[in-house]
Design brief:
Number of domains: 1
CATH class: Alpha Beta
Structural class: alpha/beta
Strand order of the largest sheet: 1-6-5-2-4-3
CATH superfamily: Leucine Aminopeptidase, subunit E, domain 1
Oligomer: single chain
Radius of gyration: 14 Å
Order of helices and strands: EEHHEEHEHEH
Helix content: 25-40%
Number of strands: 6
CATH topology: Leucine Aminopeptidase, subunit E, domain 1
């Protein structure tokens, strides 16, 4: 059974087999977690993303999908990039947010990763309400068959940490 743990702080400072990046569809970096991972990971991460864009992902990565690259200078072997949905008050996109977590775990299994650090996907500039995002993330990890031994949600602030903590009971 997969252990789910929480940490508060900077995901780029975590030690794990794989670190999940809340990427934008271009895979070429951006703001928030995405920008931080690209900055700390260094040019190797961007080079690997450019290679993906030049091959299988010419139009970018679709929402809910996941793909891995090297982790560059991060204390991990891989970065698993996933594109979260933008929150909408008029359209239920919960399945896409759940897919980010399921697909990231599927990629982690393919890689043989045993420890995976996730951010709170879609809760930054994509505006997903933190309590709902925490519910979807925790439920999805609990209900996904995986060989990953530890999923660590790395939450940037007290509000996010508290929301995930409530979901873990």
């Amino acid at each position: 059974m997969t252990s789910i743990t929480l940490a508060q702080g900077d995901i780029t400072r975590q030690t794990a087999d794989a670190i999940v990046n809340a990427a934008n569809s271009s895979l070429l970096g951006g703001g928030g977690v995405d920008g931080a991972i690209h900055r700390r990971g260094g040019p190797a991460v961007l080079d690997a993303c450019r290679a993906l864009r030049a091959s299988r992902y010419g139009k970018g990565l679709t929402t809910g999908a996941a793909v891995a690259t090297t982790a560059g200078n991060l204390d991990a072997q891989w970065v698993i990039h996933t594109v979260g949905p933008v929150w909408s008050p008029t359209e239920d996109r919960s399945d896409l947010l759940a897919s980010c977590h399921r697909e990231s775990l599927r990629v982690a299994d393919e890689l043989g990763a045993r420890t995976v650090a996730f951010p709170a996907v879609s809760t930054g500039v994509y505006r997903w309400p933190i309590d709902d995002a925490a519910r979807i993330a925790v439920e999805t990890v609990r209900n996904t068959r995986t060989s990953v031994e530890e999923v660590r949600f790395v939450l940037f602030d007290d509000r996010a940490y508290d929301a995930f903590s409530r979901q873990l009971g």
